């Protein structure tokens, strides 16, 4: 018997705040007997349920989420749909196959999302024109050189830009060098997951605000919820770092809390002073640097804090504090917009492992799991979610093989030492976070 001791806190902040209200699907009640249950309706769970429905058109798939769709990391990320991952440090000859493997997974997820957005006409500001990787300080400039070598090794299409070219495009002279990678997309993340949830095949039953509090072994498995019980042949966990509350991945995954802010919508005069592009995204080549977007609806967003905060969101007071860090970094980049106020701030929690690996496979009889993308899970989570559906159904694909080849996760000590270890892991992953690079 596995029980979820924890709760599922949430708040109304995030990209969903910028969208109109949405009708939430009803919480699950009563007793049910189904072949498949997917727990977690983020990008991983949505992709998994969609693929299961394709593979088993005559079977019912229950998709359960503790919160509303879009309230977790999948609706709170920065909206970079990555094709080519950045691996910090010098190119390691013995890692080239691994880089290629991860990028094949990213590419598979990007293609799936592209197709799903197009086929279902999802209104989510999808724009597949790549994005920028930028360097302001000396550390990031060193990383820029590593990154160019890596892109050349992988023969990934890219264009280098100097300070003047970056300023002309992005409207800031902070960056001394940058590279534009041709593939990759930008998206409004909450609109994307809502659109995916609202276009699920008819044999998927989505129930929000339906936390699974325990899973009892047996054939069938029994899932316990506050007002329902489900008997299922197979269960797929797409619960990110909260797998631990159901007794899975303890000592292997923790939640890192990231936070960012949006300005109000910029006026045409403000946009004119901002460079030649109507929309763009830029990721810092410094591990603790800022992630910036000029969104299609003309807001600037900046995310530049990351911390271990007990795997929970920040309170309103803590968000207000972090916003001072966002403000300082924003004003340094865009002094011409120093008077433009932030309208929203948000935080989100993402699962990270000590060695940066992802989780994929069978956990125990008839229970499968995919997740833990260390801050890069929009394309990858979609690919992992699709592949875990294949794997649990006995199907073989290149993406299944690539996901199965993920490195084993490194162990972390149990609480209270876990909190100390997690603090240092997050600090070293986002070294120098909040600093202006
Ligand atoms: C601030 C921030 C910025 C980011 N930026 C980017 C980016 O730009 N690009 C990128 O690729 N990645 C980014 N990421 C990472 C990316 O968002 C995640 O890797 C990805 O969304 C994970 O998807 P998921 O479906 O596995 O998990 P989640 O989106 O966390 O979904 C898991 C779901 O499981 C549900 N759940 C958990 N336990 C239970 C239970 N017991 N019962 C029922 N439901 C349960 C939760 O409510 C949740 O909805 C960012 C993350 C954050 C936080």
How is this structure best described in words?
The chain is of the alpha+beta class and about 425 residues long. It has a domain at about 1-75 and about 190-255 and about 355-415: FAD/NAD(P)-binding domain (3-Layer(bba) Sandwich), CATH 3.50.50.60. Helix content is about 30%, strand content about 25%. The chain contains eleven helices and 19 strands. Strands 1, 2, 3, 9, 10, 11, 12, 18 and 19 form a nine-stranded mixed beta sheet that branches. Helix 3 (about 95-120) packs across helix 9. It is globular, with a radius of gyration of 21 Å. The protein starts with a strand and ends in an 8-residue tail after the last helix. The model has no long low-confidence stretch (mean pLDDT about 95). The structure holds flavin-adenine dinucleotide. The site of flavin-adenine dinucleotide (FAD) has 42 residues, from helix 1, helix 2, strand 17 and helix 9.
Question: What's the layout of helices and strands?
Answer:
Blueprint: E1 2-3, E2 30-39, H1 43-55, E3 61-64, H2 73-76, E4 80-81, H3 96-119, E5 131-135, H4 138-154, E6 158-162, H5 163-170, E7 177-181, E8 185-186, H6 189-198, E9 204-207, E10 212-216, E11 221-225, E12 228-237, E13 254-263, H7 268-272, E14 280-284, E15 291-294, E16 300-308, H8 316-333, E17 342-352, E18 359-364, E19 367-371, H9 378-392, H10 398-404, H11 417-429
Helix pairs in contact: 1-9, 3-9
């Amino acid at each position: 018997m596995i029980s979820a001791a924890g709760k599922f806190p949430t708040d109304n902040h995030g990209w969903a705040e910028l969208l109109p209200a949405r009708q939430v699907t009803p919480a699950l009640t009563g007793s049910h007997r189904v072949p498949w249950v997917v727990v977690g309706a983020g990008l991983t769970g949505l992709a998994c349920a969609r693929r299961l429905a394709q593979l088993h058109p005559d079977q019912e798939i229950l998709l359960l989420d503790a919160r509303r769709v879009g309230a977790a990391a999948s609706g709170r990320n920065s909206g970079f749909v990555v094709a080519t991952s950045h691996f910090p440090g010098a190119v390691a000859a013995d890692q080239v196959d691994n880089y290629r493997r991860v990028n094949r997974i990213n590419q598979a997820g990007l293609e799936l999302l592209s197709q799903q957005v197009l086929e279902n006409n999802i209104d989510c500001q999808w724009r597949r024109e790549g994005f920028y990787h930028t360097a302001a300080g000396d550390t990031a400039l060193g990383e820029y050189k590593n990154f160019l070598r890596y892109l050349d090794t992988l023969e990934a299409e890219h264009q280098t830009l100097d300070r003047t070219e970056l300023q002309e495009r992005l409207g800031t002279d902070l960056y001394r060098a940058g590279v534009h990678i041709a593939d990759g997309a930008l998206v409004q993340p909450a609109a994307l997951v809502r659109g995916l949830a609202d276009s699920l095949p008819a044999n998927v039953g989505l129930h929000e605000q339906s936390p699974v509090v325990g899973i009892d072994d047996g054939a069938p498995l029994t899932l316990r919820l506050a007002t329902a019980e489900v008997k299922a042949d197979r269960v797929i966990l797409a619960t990110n770092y909260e797998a631990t509350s159901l007794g899975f991945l303890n000592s292997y995954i923790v939640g890192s809390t990231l936070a960012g802010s949006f300005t109000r919508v910029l006026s045409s005069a403000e946009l004119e002073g901002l460079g030649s592009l109507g929309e763009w995204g830029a990721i810092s080549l410094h591990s603790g640097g800022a992630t910036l977007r000029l969104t299609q609806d003309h807001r600037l967003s900046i995310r530049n804090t990351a911390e271990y905060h007990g795997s929970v969101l920040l309170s309103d007071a803590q968000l207000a504090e972090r916003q001072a860090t966002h403000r300082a970094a924003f004003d340094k980049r865009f002094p011409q917009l120093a008077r433009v106020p932030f309208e929203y701030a948000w935080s989100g929690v993402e699962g990270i492992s000590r060695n940066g690996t992802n989780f994929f496979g069978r956990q125990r009889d008839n229970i499968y799991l995919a997740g833990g993308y260390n801050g890069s899970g929009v394309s990858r989570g979609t690919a992992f979610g699709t592949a875990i559906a294949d794997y649990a159904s006995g199907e073989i694909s290149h993406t299944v093989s690539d996901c199965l080849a993920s490195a084993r996760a490194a162990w972390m000590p149990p609480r209270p030492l876990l909190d100390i270890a997690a603090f240092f892991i997050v600090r070293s992953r986002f070294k120098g976070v909040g600093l202006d690079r």
